[in-house]
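FORM 12-B: Structure-to-Sequence Request
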């Protein structure tokens, strides 16, 4: 948590924070600047000194008086652009740090807010932003690596039978209780290429060494949190079309001893109806597209 370390003039009744919190996602470190903290130097300095690579500047810049027409909204927006966004650009340039700015937008019961969403580079330049005060969503890639060493290369095989079912493996996180389903596969071992690793994984997890592995479907991966730690894995996916079969009980028991929770065939409609957590989240759509003859770009990203 981060409690505001600097208060505005009308916030004297609030408790002041003293700690500078730094948060992590994989190898990336980030901090937060909250509302009135944006107008002073020490909050930015403390976060940068603590190792933040990017600062998230969140604010609710309430306007004085209601905005009844376009000109009134423009005036309020111009004020916040010259105040809040200028602070973000100044501190980004001064500290050589990325700043992601997102502020409240639109009307509430008793106040109006001229929202700005922007990504500011360490040079102070605005990389991208929303155009005006209206509520919206801004998605921008920040060139900060979150990879955690060692980075693992892996393969997965999307096994689909004649009825359009796909054979998925279930994993889980003991700490969070989350469970999710992915195609069979795993890390590439020393001396293996993709197909060698894929055949070995299918034999280990499905007990089959006779399945024909088809074209590459794309790539997927990133940095994930599992059982209290971070790991980075990048995967290449391949297609396998086959007749429906059942996995031998002994093979499934061996897999469970190595972290596999379950293994079963799923129709895309079942995945959607039951709200199954899959990797990627759009796995059901991917299976439907393949069944319809629409294979993805082999160099494309299959998503999170």
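FORM 12-B RESPONSE
SEQUENCE OUT:
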């Amino acid at each position: 948590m981060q409690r505001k370390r600097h208060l505005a003039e009308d916030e004297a009744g609030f408790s002041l924070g003293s700690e500078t919190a730094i948060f992590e996602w994989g190898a990336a470190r980030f901090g937060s600047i909250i509302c009135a903290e944006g107008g002073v130097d020490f909050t930015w300095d403390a976060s940068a000194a603590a190792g933040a690579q990017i600062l998230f500047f969140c604010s609710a810049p309430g306007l004085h008086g209601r905005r009844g027409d376009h000109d009134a909204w423009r005036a309020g927006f111009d004020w916040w652009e010259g105040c809040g966004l200028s602070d973000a650009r100044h501190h980004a340039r001064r500290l050589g740090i990325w700043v992601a700015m997102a502020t409240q937008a639109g009307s509430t019961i008793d106040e109006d807010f001229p929202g700005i969403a922007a990504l500011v580079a360490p040079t102070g330049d605005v990389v991208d932003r929303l155009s005006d005060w209206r509520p919206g969503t801004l998605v921008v890639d920040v060139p900060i690596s979150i990879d955690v060493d060692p980075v693992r290369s892996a393969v997965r095989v999307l096994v689909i039978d004649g009825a359009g079912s796909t054979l998925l493996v279930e994993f889980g996180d003991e700490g969070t209780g989350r469970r999710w389903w992915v195609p069979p596969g795993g890390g590439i071992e020393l001396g293996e290429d993709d197909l060698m690793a894929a055949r070995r994984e299918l034999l280990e997890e499905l007990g089959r060494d006779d399945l024909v592995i088809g074209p590459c479907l794309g790539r997927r991966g990133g940095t994930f949190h599992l059982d209290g730690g971070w790991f980075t894995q990048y995967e290449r996916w391949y297609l396998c079309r086959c007749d429906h079969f059942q996995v031998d009980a002994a093979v499934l028991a061996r897999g469970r001893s190595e972290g596999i929770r379950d293994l079963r065939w799923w129709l895309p409609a079942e995945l959607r109806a039951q709200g199954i957590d899959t990797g990627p989240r759009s796995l059901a759509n991917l299976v439907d597209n393949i069944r319809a003859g629409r294979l993805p770009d082999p160099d494309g990203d299959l998503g999170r």
